[in-house]
Amino acid sequence: MSWTPTSAVTSLEPTSSPVPEPTDAALARPRPVDDRAPAVSAGAPSDLLVLDRVVAGYGGGDVLRGVSFAVPEGGITCLIGPNGAGKSTVLTTINGLLKPRRGEIRLRSESIGGMSPRAVLARSVVTVPQAHSLFNDMTVRENVELGACTLNDREVVARRLDEVHELFPLVAQRAKVRAGRLSGGQQRLIEFARALMLDPELVLLDEPSMGLDPKAMAAVFETIIEMNRRGKTILLVEQNAKAALRISSQGVVLESGTVRLTGSGPEVLEDPEIGRLYLGGAVRRSV
After folding, report:
1. Measured between alpha carbons, how far is 226 from 212 in angstroms, rounded to an integer?
2. pTM of the prediction?
3. DSSP conformation class of 179
4. How far is Cα 8 from Cα 14, in angstroms, rounded to an integer?
5. Where are the domains of the chain?
6. Would you tell me how many other CB atoms lie within 10 Å of the CB of residue 133?
7. Of 258, 254, 284, 259, nearest to 269 (Cα)?
8. What is the pLDDT of residues 56-65, one digit of tens each?
9. Would you identify the CATH topology of the domain 46-131+202-278?
10. What residues have CB less than 8 Å from 251, skipping those under 6 apart?
């Protein structure tokens, strides 16, 4: 799969509203989910990823207790919930850092649960972790090129780098600068650029706005929207739940390791109970 640059993320200055309204919210009403819900036996034709009653944890304890939901292809799915709900554990179970004890994870029709991180990466699933992951003593260009470490075709690598430069001029502008000299927001954009070097189908984002100032946070959300416009399916865990749900086509609410509710991003955002519990009050869009 390839992507063609159409516009560029040129700086940390937002070019529009920090959290634009989604253009497509025509999904079903939010629905509660509990342990009695039937297993997700097969994903819909439009589902890129399906989690089917996944149980996973650390040591002797289970963090995920039968998690089931689907990630539609071409959309932004946002996981929200209180601390300890299992949001980041969902991502680490998908990317192979944590093996599920029970259940199944399917990427299209292939079961990937329990595969090594390298095998999952080879299937075009990349992760941008919560903690900043650039090598501070390496240059921006060197960090970005690491994103193509599994590619052997130099022409493909060169083409991907050109495409990343088109979307992220910062990569070219700061190519020889050590990554440790960049601001937190700039580092996050470089991490996004590195992730795109593999031209992934699915991008897992774990708390991408954590620790950023409002200006950098706005730039990060605009970049997520742009990556999605270019055909990337996004699975997003984000502490700023209101902003994340506004740009998401689907919201999934986790609580105590189980899926409590799913629906479109705007519907989850406006759900009174979810707003009261997790968002500091439901948000209603003005007409």
Report:
1. 19
2. 0.81
3. G
4. 12
5. 46-131+202-278
6. 16
7. 284
8. 999 989 999 9
9. Rossmann fold (3.40.50)
10. 30, 77, 78, 80, 245, 261, 262, 263, 264, 265, 267, 268, 269
